Input
Amino acid sequence: MSLRQVLESHACAHFIRRASFHPEDAIQIFSSPRGGSTWLMSLLSQLPGVASLWEPFHSKKGVVPKHWGARPHPDAFSEGDSAILGEVLAGHRVNAWTCSRTPLQQAKNASQLLIKYVRGNRLLPFILDKWHLKHKPILLMRHPLDVAISQLRAFGERPRDVRVNKVYPGHTKLQERWAELSQVADPLERHLHLWCLLNATLWEDMSRDHRVIAVHYHDLAMQPEKELYRIIEALDLTSARARQSTQNFVSSLDPSKTSDTDFKGDFLANNHDQLWKNLGAIDDERKAILQSVLDQHGFSMYSMSDVAPQRA
Output
């Protein structure tokens, strides 16, 4: 960021920290890294009165204690961590980095927080049980193959010689299988196992929870206006709709604008081609191996035979 952007982000943090937001009022997006959440956040951040908070759980740049690790889990919470989470939801714990996606004028005039997490999926059930949320949280789900490939391209292989209890506190199954997982030679296969251990069960459960807005990246990419309309209606933003109808708002957006976290510039303009890009490039033998990974973890929402989710 330029010096001007840094100063503006610090000013945004100042205004948001001083505002009177409540944990129950936050609009929340949960997803996996490289799952399309930045794209969705950029669209919803254009709602009237909204200020966006960017990745508060980042282990290095975020605003939560280091002992929360790379993927916070409520089973590892110590005394006081629940209150810290409430401060995040209320906008009391912010910094220049978490406020870097909000223009200063939006921060000054904000009446609503939009918070995006790609590291907080395991906190979703905890948040639902602890707070009576006014707006259903969004769970954005993308084919795990696309997520794994995109993560490997953007960030490289995840180190295998880590202190797993420290990096993933509370993730018991992952900790138990880490040694076995570390022996898997193929980086993509290993990364898919890791993704499943972090997300598979939660996605299956939360996608069926009536308190959650379940959104598939596939549907958002293929029918963006229809999905955005459904999402905003489900959020029940009555104050926003009073100022601007949902239909007019959705029509004013440009869903074709790619995410600014498309680091490699590999986003394809044709939505169908984009969705099939990774799966279509893998031969049948490797698909069978990767499908066996999903099967081992009991994950049936997506398969290696189709880019679309399996409908119940």
